[in-house]
Amino acid sequence: MIHQPYSKLVAIKRWADRGLYDVVSQNFDRLSSEDASIMLRILDHIHMVDRIFQHHLQGLSHTFQAPRSERMPELQALASSARKVDGWYACYVDSLAESDFEQPVDFVFTSGKPARMRRGEIILHVCLHGTYHRGNAGAVLQLKGITPSRDAITDFLEEDAT
What we know:
GO terms for molecular function: metal ion binding. Belongs to the DinB family. By secondary structure, the protein is mainly alpha-helical. It has a single domain (about 5-160), classed as dinb family like domain (Four Helix Bundle (Hemerythrin (Met), subunit A), Up-down Bundle), CATH 1.20.120. The protein is built from five helices and two strands. It has helices spanning about 5-25, 35-60, 75-95, 120-145, 155-160; strands at about 105-110, 115-120. Strand 1 (about 105-110) and strand 2 form a beta hairpin. The longest helix has 26 residues, at about 35-60. It is globular. About 25% of the residues are buried.
């Protein structure tokens, strides 16, 4: 069954994103202005890539010129928007038929280069991309003595089992 792994990956991403935003929100005042700026850039980049590929999956054009915002959003606005987009991905994946994951999607990267990916590849990319950059955010937190949220698949499965 192809559908289940994608649903699980998106659920893990959603859970891990929420955990990171919670820790960052609770500790944002402990970050220096430089570290706070780096953190916002990381979170914004994750979110913008999510939004760009959301548009690609929907076949919608967009005006994003780069995988980051032109103006840096405030943390709470970013957190709220990320929750909505993560929710959209969860609903989207659950609405697809198994054959839809193999369907190609033609789009243009923000660099202007044309591309084609299958829907499943896009979902996988969004999930893995977020994982990579949550690790970056976790490193910034750890350097400041702040414990990052748990975000490993095993952590999710352990928490989900309780």
